[in-house]
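Hello Y.,

Per our agreement to keep a running log of every chain we model this quarter, I'm adding this entry. I've kept the format consistent with earlier entries: sequence first, then predicted structure.
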Amino acid sequence: MASLQNASADRRPWGLPRAAGYRPAGGVRGLRHGQRGSARCTSRPRGGAWHATLRIGPAVLWLLLALVPQSAASAGDVRRAPRVAVDVGHTIAKPGAVSARGRAEFEFNRELALKVVDSLARIGLEGVLVNADGAIASLAARPAQVPEADAFISIHHDSVSEWELQDWDWGGRGETYSDRWAGHSLFVSRRNPDLPRSLLCATAIGARLQRVGFTPTDKNARRREYADALHAVHYFDDLVVLYRATQPALLFEAGVIKHREEELLLRDPRRQARMAEEIATGLAACLAVPR
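Predicted structure for the entry above:
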């Protein structure tokens, strides 16, 4: 694997190195690491009650990309800091996907969720961890625990279809992998009571991640309609944690743990911390935009 230490701290290529023969998995074809782009909703939900709310003009995009973290809660502001619920996807009993090296998705989810909560606190927001012990089996119960939160994000790691898997031996054990897909993606539900703000938060996070070199995937476009193709945001209307939330909500897939090289990147604490910082800053930017 290419060393992560050769890139600059600000523009580190946190996606898979292209020298390894990896085809950039972007719903962002032609967008290079660190390059800015314009964000807009590429498709609209069905129904007539829709306006241009999801179009993000240059001024708002600048805010999403360049928000000064301290502005999330200024020293003289007597209002409470914005509160973000950070849900650890899956449970101990049903831990989700299994990585190429046999590690449960729940463990990946909890590690990243903890770092997101820490990053939110560092920029003046309050992060509330949901399902930290992996015991909340009910998806509807998760947003119900945090009705006062200003935003809800569920942390997950992606897998692939069964037919795409190949067998390999790891540490004397038979495991499965697929090196076809890699990269992050985001999901919102049109059944959420605040879809415009949900999509704004997802776009803000996607923009921040790409700005520092994380590469999205277009894997999920095979089944899920794009809400914002540039930033790999999809509609997934029937996700319970999203449509049962009373606040803006999104689900974040940090990467594909069946991809052998990306699995190692997703376990790197430095990379986890950088991803968490950009997620937190994107949320801060989204929540700072006036309603």
